[in-house]
Write a structure and sequence with these properties.
Blueprint (H helix, E strand, L loop, with lengths): L1 E4 L8 E5 L8 H9 L4 E4 L10 E6 L4 E7 L2 E5 L1 H7 L3 E9 L2 E3 L4 E2 L5 E4 L4 E5 L2 E9 L7 H6 L3 E2 L2 H17 L8 H16 L3 H25 L8 H8 L3 H7 L6 H18 L7 H7 L5 H12 L3 H5 L12 E3 L5 H7 L2
Antiparallel strand pairs: 1-2, 1-14, 2-4, 3-6, 4-5, 5-12, 6-11, 7-10, 7-12, 8-9, 8-11, 10-13
Helix pairs in contact: 4-5, 4-6, 5-6
């Protein structure tokens, strides 16, 4: 069943599909129905064992972005399909989990960006897969055409390739909070990133710099969140993870008061969540020490300075129930295959 997320009227159009409501023996046929007629697929496990898969696609006008989770399968885009649909797009796949491989043996996993030219014959397989993919019509990015064609069934090399994958993941996280008025900026930034990462040069890098910096910032913030309780978290570890110099990191966080200030505030906010959760009843000094505040008086002063009240007052706040997640509703919509094929 193809569905649309029940979201405000000002949200970016998006279509969700899941095989969860289909009987196990018919799940793969349901999955094929939304991919028609672009590609032939065959699961790597018996069809009657089920095919639990889901996909969410955003219509960006000139582009499409998808987030897909599916079991392992083989895929093939052959000559009859090329002649039948004349789709002349690139597919840039950034796995979060799993591996995509071509028949030639080229592979891409997490942290890489795999390129397929849909106007050329291609075949390969995936393991159990969780990936974000960008569908790019040829006319959208003429400056990057040569570089993307060369990368057919390969991954984008170099650190810029990793940044491009991170950019696509970041875009998928942010699109639910954006509206149609943001699409021109999103499309322009995406075009600049594509050209900079596939045909790098001084001019293309300069044009993509805002998007590159935003992606680096997202990567840095994610690393900080994931390591917030680590006593080793600091400038050296962040620089090593991002592959950047101290000077570049300091410049990146300059408008946020510096990287160490950002970490300190993030730890205060995390302490506030723990204190006000109603479930973590450890002494306040233990919660503070876990987040690098070894002196209780220092923690209390910093906490009150930031929030305007003390840690003990935060612990006794009224706890509100968590908001409900958006529900799904039925919507008559084209299959994902037809949607992708309609991009020009």
């Amino acid at each position: 069943m193809t569905e649309a997320i029940d979201s405000p009227a000002t949200s970016i159009p998006n279509y969700a599909f899941s095989t969860a409501a289909v009987e196990a023996e018919h799940q793969f046929e349901a999955w094929l129905s939304i991919m028609r007629p672009l590609v032939a697929m065959e699961p790597r496990s018996p069809r009657d064992k089920g095919f639990p898969a889901q996909s969410l696609a955003w219509d960006l006008g000139a582009l499409a972005l998808t987030h897909t989770v599916m079991p392992a399968l083989d895929f093939r885009r052959d000559t009859p399909r090329l002649r039948a649909d004349s789709v002349d797009h690139w597919l840039l796949v950034a796995p979060k989990r799993g591996v995509m491989s071509s028949e030639a043996g080229n592979k891409a996993g997490a942290g890489l960006c795999y390129v397929r030219s849909m106007h050329r014959v291609s075949a390969g397989w995936t393991t159990d897969f969780d990936a974000v993919a960008l569908v790019v019509p040829r006319d959208f990015c003429p400056a990057g055409a040569r570089g993307l064609d060369v990368l057919h069934e390969r991954h984008v090399a170099s650190q810029l390739g990793g940044l491009l994958a991170d950019y696509l993941h970041s875009l998928a996280r942010q699109l639910p909070q954006l509206g149609p008025e943001h699409l021109p900026a999103v499309v322009a930034a995406t075009r600049a990133m594509l050209v900079a990462c596939t045909a790098p040069g001084r001019d293309t890098l300069a044009e993509a710099m805002p998007a590159l910096q935003a992606t680096q910032m997202e990567r840095a913030k994610l690393f900080i969140r994931q390591n917030l309780l680590s006593p080793r978290l600091g400038v050296r570890d962040i620089c090593r993870q991002l592959g950047m110099s101290r000077t570049a990191l300091y410049r990146l966080f300059e408008q946020l008061g510096g990287v160490m200030h950002y970490i300190r505030v993030a730890r205060l906010q995390d302490a506030h969540r723990a204190l006000s959760s109603g479930t973590d009843m450890r002494p306040i000094y233990e919660i503070a020490a876990e987040r690098g505040f070894l002196e209780p008086s220092e923690f209390s002063r910093a906490f009150k300075r930031h929030f305007g009240y003390s840690p003990s007052e935060a612990r006794h706040e009224t706890h509100l129930p968590a908001p409900r997640r958006p529900s799904l509703k039925n919507l008559t919509a084209p299959s994902l295959g037809e949607f992708v094929g309609s991009l020009r």
